[in-house]
Amino acid sequence: MNTDAPFAPWEDESATPLIAFSNVTKQYGTFTAIDEVDLKIYPKEFFALLGPSGCGKTTLMRMLGGFETVTEGRITIDGVDMDGIPPNKRAVNMMFQSYALFPHLTVAQNLAFGLKRSDMPKSEIDGRVEEMLRLVQLKKFASRKPHQMSGGQRQRVALARALAKAPKLLLLDEPLGALDKKLRQETQFELMDIQEKTGTTFVIVTHDQEEAMTVASRIAVMDHGKLKQIDTPDRIYEAPNSVYVADFIGDVNIIEGQVTKAEGDAAELSWGEGKPAIRGMAGAGLRAATSGAFVVRPEKVAIFSEEPMDRHNRLNGTVEDIAYLGNMSTYYVRLENGALIKSQVANNRRIARRAITWGDRVWLSWTDTAGIVLAS
Amino acid sequence: MNIARRLLITVPYAWLVALFLVPFLIVLKISLSDYAISIPPYAPTLELEEGWSGFRDFWVGLDFENFVFLSEDSLYIKAYWSSLKIALLATFLTLLIGFPFAYAIANAPQEWRPSLLLLIILPFWTSFLIRIYALIGIISNEGFLNQFLIWTGITSEPLVIMNTNTAVYIGIVYTYLPFMVLPIYSTLEKLDGSLLEAAQDLGCTRTSAFWSVTIHLAKPGIIAGCFLVFIPALGEFVIPSLLGGSHTLMIGKVLWEEFFSNRDWPLASAVAVILLLVLIIPIILFQRNEQKQREQNK
Fold it and tell me: How many structural domains does chain B have?
């Protein structure tokens, strides 16, 4: 294998997926939690299921663990149909949101719990426990009980316990949800590190898009039991395939209008009477003469006090609000048609030197490739 | 420490001294006295108006005669021993029946749990004696149970349950079931369901997850329930005397007979003092268990 090539088995037609969902549906009574999902996850991937609460991401993961049955369709792991196979017979381990550490057992006993119930010889168990403790840097805590540890330490014990049996697939249910922000960021990198070291396939469920963007090789954005988009973090951010995904991931400006041109990559959207159409990239399956939405990220919107004649996309409006965030400022500009557009500018200069202030008439502009026109 | 706090602490201590320590000392004193045909039926009594010599006569009159007698007469030792056996077996039976009860309630849908708990507690709203008499109506030779068994043809002769040790076990299990169910329920109810899922995820079957997780975590409740049943069952007097036969030997019954039939207050007091000592050991164990649990939950 060429190690220089970027890791992207999903682009390789010949690669065999570790997990395959084919046409999977899950119903609770009349409520459809998972709606005809098709999904392939490849070995060594760090795959994130992202979506708001109640979108079905946890149900999808619990199906992999064997805690939920499938109403329709098929799930295979490593080519084996998982129908009717109980959790204890799957080469899959799960790290629970509540960590689910056994309170009556010490850290070492928690780690050994699964090993004792596997076919690992007794003599090797201690060594494996030690190895796992080293992996998560908790060697000193082997004889502690879970309640004697901090949240971050417990999180690491839970991770080590789930990895102890060297599963083919590790499921992580909101693994960092209970940690404070700073610790969460540190732990994200630790997770990636451990994933790389162990070479295990990780599937993580999260509602935190930043977390998904940081750790995952690919992200599936879910809504109402459906997969909206499955893509790499940069593609999800730069090339969302729907307004829903664009709106869910990060901050975004959405301008509604009529698609006037859709040729190849380029598209134009007319958004107000007497205004020139704005140019952007064409989203998938976009057709002219339909209603559409122009999507552009605030950091790609530049703000000028004079009209930038050299640019095609230029809109004018009034500064309504300025949010000073320290490293950057967000300008909220009201257009003549009433729409509010955000422009994010890095604060390279001291605030006293700022040229634009409240109530100023300004021009907003972005390049022809900064935005995307999506069918709405 | 300020006065208000001191006062607050004084109340429970005063309560304990007046209602436990003083009566206990009186019983202890009577157990060291001798039987006498008088009112009260023991000697010596403290004659304060005779001053110092009165106190000396009183002190000299006290001895361990009753305790020596207890240790020499095999009846009492047998009664203690048989009480222990009955109480232990009855506690075990109550656990066998109570645990599934508690488990079922803890796993019932949330909205059903209060009603189910109420059903467990409901019999307590009736007098204990009435419930025991009701049991007699069910298990006696002409009782409902035997009538039913004969009517269905399962037996032709009535089952003899009444006035046997079996009746005593039924009585104790029936009476003390809530004391077993409630503490076990309270531990099972707190049990995090994801622990069982984690156990299954790590290779347990449903059954082995139950044994290696549920039972372990219910242990404090099981221990509390067992003590709550065992301690009163050991000194039980009403159940063996109403349901048990003449050969059902329990120390509570012996105690009652010494006091009221024989009017031998000193000997009865000695029996009571020893019973208390026998009970104090499990109570201390029980409290140590509670203490340990509290420290663990910190």
Answer: 1
Q: How far apart, in whole angstroms, are the C-alpha atoms of residue A98 and residue A170?
A: 16
Q: Give the best residue of A88, A97, A98, A105 to mutate against chain B (max B CB count within 10 A).
A: A88
Say how far apart CA A316 and CA A364 lie, in whole Å: 6
Contacts of A92 in chain B (CB under 8 A): 201
Q: What is the overall mean pLDDT for chain B? A: 89
C-alpha radius of gyration, chain A, whole number: 25
Cα(A197)–Cα(A159) distance, rounded to whole angstroms? 14
Cα separation, B160 vs B138, in Å, equals 12
Instruction: State the sign of the Cα–Cα–Cα–Cα dihedral B112, B115, B117, B123.
Output: negative
DSSP strands (E only) in chain A: 19-28, 31-41, 46-50, 72-77, 80-81, 92-95, 169-173, 201-206, 218-223, 226-231, 253-263, 266-270, 278-282, 291-296, 302-304, 313-324, 328-335, 340-346, 361-366, 372-375
CA-to-CA distance for A28 and A34, rounded, in angstroms? Answer: 10
Is B49 contained in some domain? Answer: no
Confidence of residue A1 (pLDDT cuts 50, 70, 90): very low
Nearest to A170 by CA among A215, A119, A139, A233: A215
- The answer to the question of residue B262 being in a domain is yes
List pLDDT tens digits, range B90-121.
999 999 999 999 999 999 999 999 999 999 99
The per-residue pLDDT for range A113-140, each reduced to its tens digit, is: 999 999 899 999 999 999 999 989 999 9
Q: Return d(Cα A329, Cα A321) in angstroms, integer.
A: 10
Name the CATH superfamily for A251-375: Nucleic acid-binding proteins (2.40.50.140)
For residues A215 and A233, the answer to whether their CB atoms sit within 8 Å is no
State which residues form the domain around B184: 73-297
CA distances (Å), origin B214, targets B112, B200, B217, B270: 21, 12, 5, 44
**Average pLDDT score over residue span B118-144:** 91
The one-letter amino acid code at A328 reads M
B16 within a domain of the structure (yes/no): no
Q: Given CB atoms, is B194 within the 8 Å cutoff of chain A?
A: yes
**A9-91+167-238 homologous superfamily:** P-loop containing nucleotide triphosphate hydrolases (3.40.50.300)
Sorted by where each begins, the domain ranges of chain A are 9-91+167-238, 251-375
Residue with tokens 């010599």: B53
pTM for the model stands at 0.81
The one-letter code for the residue type at B167 is A
Q: Is residue B7 part of a domain?
A: no
Q: Is A93 on the interface with B (CB under 8 A)?
A: yes
Q: How far apart are CA B267 and CA B70, in angstroms?
A: 8
Q: List the CATH number of the domain containing B203.
A: 1.10.3720.10
- Amino acid A222 reads M
Contact call for A117 and B216, based on CB within 8 A: no
- Would you call B200 an interface residue with chain A, using a CB distance cutoff of 8 Å? yes
Cβ neighbours for A91, distance < 8 A, ≥ 6 positions apart: A77, A78, A167, A168, A169
Phi, psi at A295, each rounded to 5°: -120, 125
H-only helix segments in A199-265: 209-215, 233-238, 243-248
Our CA-based measurement puts residue A23 at a distance from the nearest CA of chain B, in whole angstroms, of 25
Q: Helix axis angle, A107-116 relative to A151-164, nearest 10°?
A: 20
